[in-house]
Amino acid sequence: MSRNILIPVLVALAASSCSSRNLKQKDVWVPVYEDASKAKEIVSLPPKAVVTAGKIYAYRDFVYQLEENKGIHVYRLEGKEPKPLFFIQVYGAQEMSIREDKLYTNNFQDIVILDIANPQSLREIGRLHKAFDMRINTVPPTNGYFQCVDSTKGVVVGWELQHDIEASCIY
Amino acid sequence: MRKIYLIILAMACMLHLGCTKYDMNSSTGKGGSTARFTIYGDYLYAVNNSKLSIISISEPAHARVVAVTPIGENIETIYPYQGKLFIGSANAMYIYSLDDPERPMLEGMASHVRACDPVVAYGNFAFVTVRGGDNQSPCGGNTNALFVYNILNLKSPRLLHTYNMKNPHGLGVVEDYLYVCDASAGLYVFDIKNPARPNVRKVLSGYVFEDVIPYDDLLICKVLGGMVIYDISNPGEPIFVAKTF
Q: ipTM exceeding 0.90?
């Protein structure tokens, strides 16, 4: 069976199994929540290790790599070597582009505009609500069992793999 | 006096027209070939699964969506090149003219391939990687290959050549050379002095290659786990410089 057919079938299974019984499973993806207001906070942090390497970008003597759904790693090219400078926390981030010291990225479905002229104290100077209509973070990173998303707990900012716990959704 | 400078500038631009080396002092940055955002002139172009959003950024603090245009299904990438937008979807490669940057016009498409994923353009040629369903791609089909199109006539791109690969992802082009990421099968360096017949010059291994940005003398690679940088002062012979992980 091709994957094209498999995905809708799994989604259909997921939808139907959400309401059914709870059972302990070996590997379970658990949603990580953040307050809706915190999930939209964009801040500059010290460099972090890359976990899920996302898209890349280059601007002047800087190179960037998205940390999928978490933010942007910023490096400065010293000679030809990239030195970690800092990490811009942008939950839901998957895309970026830069022009004249303004960085355009997505904070979930919002497109945000950041002034990066002074990278230590970056500023959000604009936000286009729901301008990037992609489904982000609504399903776990890989197929399998997961705890169903409860939107009353906040916004899903990531997924954590846990073991031998109950799960009633499957992807 | 100013006029003379402008003429000199125009001549310099014309001389450089065929040159694809990236200027690191440009006011706009450069993304990989698998991007959904791209900036061209005063506009940010963003594609979701089916639509192209055109966002005016002439005043960044007052950026605004000027239009949203339906394109097709399963869009994955957008790539600007000399006044055109190349949009890669699971079913087609679309070429839009930006003569009016607020109203991109469909100029042509190649729909006979299940052309998932990235497109780069080079003179009158476009290179597309096609990744089949057996490689965890949403594109379907069983083709895993690099396609070369002649795009001299934008209205009907003509398929010139197919080079079979294992699991091709992003790609990047400089003068005479094309870099194609074939995941764990390596980074392919093609000689494209004859663009219709890419010729494998060498294959770099050691990482799972996913996308590249040729950036002046550097080749910035997105690989599984982080980023790897090569020196491409000699573009046919990339030399490892550093990695971020």
A: no
